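Purpose: get a first structural picture of the assembly so the mutagenesis plan has something to point at.
Setup: two entries, given in the order below. No constraints added.
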Amino acid sequence: MNQITDMLKRNSLLLALIIIIVLFETVIRMTGHGSLLSPQNFTNIISQNSYVIILAVGMLFCIVGCGNIDLSVGSIVCLIGALAGVLMVNMEVNIYLSMALCLLLGILIGAWHGFWIAYVRIPSFIVTLAGMMLFRGIALLVLDGLTISPFDTEYLANFNSFIPKARASAFTLTMIVTLVLCAIFLLWGLYDRATKRRKGYELEPMASFAFRSVIVIGGLLFSGVLLGNHKGIPFILVILAVVVLFYAFIANKTVTGRRLYALGGNEKAAKLSGVNTNFILFLAYVNMGFLSALAALVCVARFNSAAPTAGTGYELDAIGSCFIGGASAYGGVGTIGGAVIGAVFMGVLNNGMSILGIDANWQKTVKGMVLLIAVVIDVMSKKRAR
Amino acid sequence: MSDKILLQMKDITKRFGKVTALHNVNLEVKEGEVHALVGENGAGKSTLMNVLSGIYPYGTYEGQIILNGEECHFKTIRDSERKGIVIIHQELALVPFLSIAENMFLGNECTSNSFHEVMDWPRTYSYAQELMHTVGLDEDPRTLIKDIGVGKQQLIEIAKAISKNCKLLILDEPTASLNETDSQKLLDLIAKFREQGMTSIIISHKLNEISYIANNITVVRDGSTIETLDNANHDVPEDRIIAGMVGRAMTDRYPKRDQNHIKDEVLLEVRNWTVHDPLTPERKRCDNINIKIRRGEVVGMSGLMGAGRTEFAKSLFGGSYGVNISGQVFLKGKECHFRSVTDCVKAGLAYVTEDRKGDGLILMNPIYQNVTLSNLPEVSNHSVIDNDAEVLHAKNYKGELNIKCEHVLQDVGNLSGGNQQKVLLAKWLFTKPDVLILDEPTRGIDVGAKYEIYCLINQLVEEGKGVLVISSELPEILGICDRVYVMNEGRIVAEMPRSEASQESIMAAIIRSSGNNESKVQEAS
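Result (structure tokens, whole complex):
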């Protein structure tokens, strides 16, 4: 029993997400606005929030490494979008070459920020604030204040299509994929436990393992059924899964990830332990630039246009997601999983309120309050734990 | 000193959740005395003082506080300050970028008589000057706190206490970060105030200072007061105090070591090492230093604070300090060019830093992550970390070094100072070094943990490693080292084998090399 309450405490954010989903679902159904969890809306929530999740993952690394933030991501999204538009629509360059060029520009912009922040040690707030204006300005110059559209259908298909292409086999295929994923998850977990027992390592308590498995498999099956009932697995979800899993792996399992957390926890100690702190910080910003470019490609495909106002406020969505997800503003603390849940949390809030027809001004107000409350609860619960 | 009792704490019990930090503690302090409170870390000294000063408000503890025959219920620090009780914490509460005068009256500002929001600067500065005179400082009160040394900062704290009309001054580890000269000045100042009738309670680990200054010594152990020793003649032996603190007689504070493990092979040799200050590059912090460490040898590096010992060690350690570094390093006879900390770790050199919280450990990370941080390649495969292996290694060190913690997944920040120090040592032992530089390895930790660390040093040299110990505590240097270098003003001024080293000879070497120039000594400190 103790273990279960412990687990709930540790996953309080996930619990809050489930509660808010149930709450919205009840209200939406009662007022006859349809359903939050209809197959179509579920798919919608995923594509609506894809870019926030990608940006939040990148932002988390900046926040963890020394509590830095990147204010310029919205402007970078706009600039890269503009470049994509110019290359693909105006100049009709090959779309894969264009995408590669866009990602490369993202990396270069990240390196520009990283150089000033990590090597010259200009405060990140200032560098990225400058970047926010600078890159928005360049984007406006490139676009000349106009919107570029429409994009090539082949390009759009890369992001907006579903697996499988034929709607008839959607349910069967989706369920097969879901079940295979569940099986892989379970078997891998059991295999891992067996190896640990054999080597005499510490074993995770069975209850906690079972709890985690139930949550993950339940979530997978639930999403599988909903997606299968619509058009199948959206391709953007595959991209998201790859990004999230890859960066979670980096954060938890690699030397670079560990060094990033060490840098955020105590820079001087990390330095005296042989961590090349400047390079790690530099990498965090290069990575942020890369992910901003990826988010830009996703956005352009979703809106089928490159607009001068694209990306406005995205940086704040990404930063908010990380903090709702339990990252510390002083650095050193935060998880990829938390940032993703934070982003989904904000996404569900947006989507639910839109369905209910709540005024956009009120939506902003509510989101602001939620951000504050989430962080206050996090801080208070940590205080009590001590 | 009269026989009148100023303060009485009766049957104080303080609980944190299920943990009882103080259990029926009784303390009596006479008017005009210096009363020392001694005990191991975590014995409850600071908790008791926090109860007294109202940091733990009335109602959160049981028992009575009687000041001048009147029972007091302090709800905040301000309540106790109004009664003349002022506490000076170990970590000084000064704002570095404000001036001395501004710091002195922070929260208690001298304001204009008609407008209470408007500062009265002339009065602030003249009153500050006056208070600084009473503690023997002649700085300009407009000097910023960051520009004066720790010793003077400590005096500013005392002046600040006096400005609050202090009757009972509580000093928590006042000399922990001071060198011998500054410590002596501070103790003399406390003695001067005693003659003027002020009462003080002093918490300290430095027993020689306690027996020098205190009239009565109360020993706290495991949340209870064990005994109060009468030290009116300043003749209570240190061993007697330690016996009370640890609950048994400590026959020898420094474990014996077999002498014949010292080999002729030189493990580390440094030649003509010169380092310049990074802020003012024309100033030399280390000047032409030559040292040798043999296999199986413990070498001490003694000197006043600011002599350049830490600067030397850090500059050696991959250029972590200083600019324009020149000189040669030979490790096991081979010349090395250390460009980074990683180079040093690979070559087998480890530096255990002096400031374990500031630049040693990552307090918010678990124990096992701290242990492996300097040698992650050891527990990873193609830069993918094996968490299980990490935990296993950390557990081994937990057992080996007797680290007291529930689990190695616990955050380091929750451990006591002694256990944090052990984690820091484990971290550097995990890099499998041949030569270890230990910078103040026992600062601020209790007698028991110190003994364990000395035993560990013995074990290391018996395994054939070389150890350089940098320490400001002379008895420690004399107790554990085979050979001693004395450093002053960036230079090695003496080298002596254990047989010739004594507190007197080391101090003499320092004073002689300072050219009997008092101002120079102060600058170095």
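The first strand of chain B starts at residue 5 and ends at 16.
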